[in-house]
Amino acid sequence: MQTSRTSRRNFLAFALGVPIAGATLAACGSSGPGTENGGSGGGSGGSYWYLSVDPNETIRRTSLDRFNKANPDESIKGTAFQNDAYKEKIKVAIGAGQAPTVIWGWGGGGLASWVDAGAVEDLTSWFDENPDQKERRFPSSFAAATVDGKIYAVPAETVTPIVLFWNKQVFEEAGLQPPTSWEEILELVPKFNDKKIAPFSLAGQSRWTNMMWLEFLFDRIGGPEIFQAVFDGEKDAWSNPAAIKALGEVQKLVKADGFIKGFASITADTNADQALLTSGKAAMMLHGAWTYGSMKTEGGDFVSGGHLGYMNFPPVAGGTGDPSNTYGNPGQYYSLSSKATDEQKTAAKDFFKTQVLSDAEQTDWVNDAGQVPIVVGVDSKFSGLEDAEWLQFVYDTASTAQTFSQSWDQALSPTAAEELLSNIAKLFSLDVTPEKFAENMNAVIGK
C-alpha cells in the first residue's frame, strides 16, 4: 500500500519565500504538434520530452542543441508535445516503464506519483555534490521538487505568479480607481455592469482559471495554513470556517455578475479571456503572469500603449493572510528516469549542470520570451529592456512574497486535483453550496 502523498510532503514549509537578490517572472506552455527535434543527434545519451509552443519550445531545443554540439558522445534526442498530449503520453510511458531519460514536469502531486511508482531518480546527492546548483536557484523553487525531504527533480526555467490585471483605459473612462481590497472589488462590480462592461474576464470552461480565485481568497482570509491542512490530510480540512467563508465570497461575486456573461463556455487555450480584457469588454482579469506575452503580441497597443495595469491580489478585511503571499508556478521541473542506463543518467546530469539555466539560456528566457529564470541575480539582465518594468514587478512579487505557493491542482494528487476542478466548476455555476463543496472535497482528502 502506498503512503498517502499528502502526509509526506510539506506544502507550506517549502513554500515560504526568502527575499533574494534575483528575479522572477514566468511562462506557461501548451498546444502545438508533437515534433521531434531532428537536430538533437542520435540520442546516445537518451531522450528528453518537453512541451511545444514558442518561444518556450525553441529555448528548450536550443539549450539541448548546445549540449549535443559540445558533447557529441552524449547526445540527447529531444521531442516536443502539446500540453494535453504530453500529459497522457508521459503517464502511459511511465506506467509501462518506458519514460524518456529526462522528464519535463510541473512537480508537486504529479512528481510525487512518479516517486511512488519508482519511476524517477533521487537527485539529492547530486545537489549535495554540486552545491552551486542549489544555491543559484530560488529557494522557493525546491518545494515542488521535494518528496519526503528528498529532491527528485531539477528546478528549471521560470517562475510565474498569478496577477490581477486591469485595463487602465477602461478605468479612466469610467472614472474609477483600481481596487485596493476585496471589498473594493465587490463595490466595482455594479459600477462596471451599469456601464455594460464586464467587471472580470474569466475562461471558466478551463476550470483551473476559476481555481485561482479560491487560492487567493483562502489565503487572504485564513492564510496558507488553510490549504496546508488539506495537503496534510487533516480530516474535514475543507470545512474550516475560513474556507467556507472564501467559498461563499466567490459565489457572492458570481451572483453579482462579477464575471463576463457566458464565462463557463470560454476556454483559456484560445486566449479569448485575454482578448476581452485587451479589447475593453472586461475591466479586470485574474491570470498567470505568462499571459503578459500573448497580450503584448495579440492585444494591439494594449501593452505598448501603456493600457495594462497589474497588481498582486488585494487583502480581505479581517483576513489573516499576508498580502504579499502569492500563488502560481514556482518553476518547471526536469526529472531523471530511474530506468535509464548509467550512460544516459550521466549524460542527463551533464546536461543539467552545463545547460539548464546556463547564462546563455537565462538570456534566452529574458530576451526572447520576456520571462524570468529562477536564478538568483538574474535581475541584472533587465536593464534597458522594453519589458523591464514588468519583469521587475514579477520579480518583486515572487521574490518578496512571505509565501509563494504552488497551484492547488499541481500540489494535489491527480485524483484529488480532478475532483477539485470538477467541484470548482459546480461552485461557480452555483450548483453546489460552499458546505456541499467542502463535503465533496473532504471525501477525497489524502487520496
UniProtKB/TrEMBL annotation:
<dbReference type="Pfam" id="PF01547">
    <property type="entry name" value="SBP_bac_1"/>
</dbReference>
<protein>
    <submittedName>
        <fullName>Extracellular solute-binding protein</fullName>
    </submittedName>
</protein>
<keyword id="KW-0732">Signal</keyword>
<dbReference type="InterPro" id="IPR006059">
    <property type="entry name" value="SBP"/>
</dbReference>
<dbReference type="InterPro" id="IPR050490">
    <property type="entry name" value="Bact_solute-bd_prot1"/>
</dbReference>
<feature type="signal peptide">
    <location>
        <begin position="1"/>
        <end position="26"/>
    </location>
</feature>
